[in-house]
Amino acid sequence: LPSTIGTLSNLWFLNLAVNEKLGGTIPSALGNLKKLFWCELHFNQLTGTLPSTFGGLTSLQSLMIDDNKLVGTVPTFLGRLRGLT
Predict the structure, then answer these.
(1) Are 29 and 49 a contacting pair, CB within 8 Å?
(2) What is the pTM of this model?
(3) Strand, helix or coil at 63?
(4) Distant-in-sequence, close-in-space partners of 17: CB < 8 Å, separation ≥ 6
């Protein structure tokens, strides 16, 4: 994912799921998308960890990141996002 995705300030729905060629790390710039309500990144080849900038996505209600190559534990900042289901 290019970091320039973080400039799409009015983006509220992101579905990049089930794309076998989508790899690399999740850019921290996604944390700039303050209106992001729905984020589907599952069934890809994403690596690394979930950026801490996701902790500021207070509008986020759905985050699907399963079936990637992410490492580490579930970040504690996700627990502070009250809208996540």
Answers:
(1) no
(2) 0.91
(3) strand
(4) 40, 41, 42, 43, 44, 64
